[in-house]
Amino acid sequence: MSSQPTSIRIHQFAGLQPGPRFLVTGAVHGNEIHGTRAMTEIIRQLDAGELTLKRGTLTCVPIVNPLANQLNRREGDRNLNRNLRPPVIAQDFEDRVARVLCPLIAQHDGILDLHSFQGNGPAFAMIGPRNNSGELEPFSQEATESALAAALGVTRIVEGWLSTYALGIARRQQRSHDGSRRASLISDPHYGVGTTEYMRSTGGWAITLECGQHLDAGGPEVARLAILRALVFLGMLDESAVQAHQPAQPPEVLQLYDVIDREDMGDSFEQAWASFDAIARGQKIGTRANGEAVLAPSEGRIVFPNVKSLPGTEWFYLARPSDRKL
């Protein structure tokens, strides 16, 4: 068995003119490598002079979680994209990554975090909350996130992540657990905080781009074009660096409003759901191990249905149309 990685590779291009400090990350979940492949190509293009950075600083971290990537799975010891904060005492590999990652995030103005997902479905972007001064996720960069997400070339944008997580955590806290570290982590109010939430907590803007299913052959190109479009949007590359084509219709905007956990490995879906499949109120989504039907509480969409989720973790999300204007 190979030893655990002891470093993270960080690539940085510092423009000679001042400008935005832009961070791009991939393989935060080790088996989600569309962003890794996209960054490899963009780094090559910059090195070869095929792309020219006009201003600002571009930092690329193609493999944020090298242990999970080495194992070709989502996690090393735990989910790096949950409970992300600098640890007081490192208890696992992801804590050691966080010691490096959190200060790196804080040094930048914004982040594009590139992911993929288990089920089938099209690429989409996830953005933060509306501007607010509340306790959960105070924020003042709504306009930047909305405009940048609309420029990335995806046809769907989703909001409402952390508020939905808070609802799920409140339910978990009402259930008894075995006292393990895993059980403590998934019932921690901080559990919903990952790369983008941490960036927003430092005052920056952040977008998660889900580039398609894990094995989608088109995923790396979705990621590559999104990085280029973001750089053009930020004035860091000339517009000629990327094709101007955009979807004919403005992106659909959806609001996450609930998350349903798996309770038992015997819980099963009614059908092979894909992200954003339409569901009707009262439609049967799945069946619990005890035979109880899991029904849709209202009309909307199913998001991130995960047949591989573990008991006590997210099984699927629910979304409905948002009134947010981009």
Automatic annotation (TrEMBL):
InterPro entries on file: AstE_AspA_cat, N-alpha-Ac-DABA_deacetylase
Cofactor requirements of the protein: Zn(2+)
Signal peptide: none
Gene3D superfamilies: Zn peptidases
Succinylglutamate desuccinylase/Aspartoacylase catalytic domain location: 18-116
Protein name per Swiss-Prot or TrEMBL: Succinylglutamate desuccinylase/aspartoacylase family protein
Keywords of this entry: Hydrolase, Metal-binding, Zinc
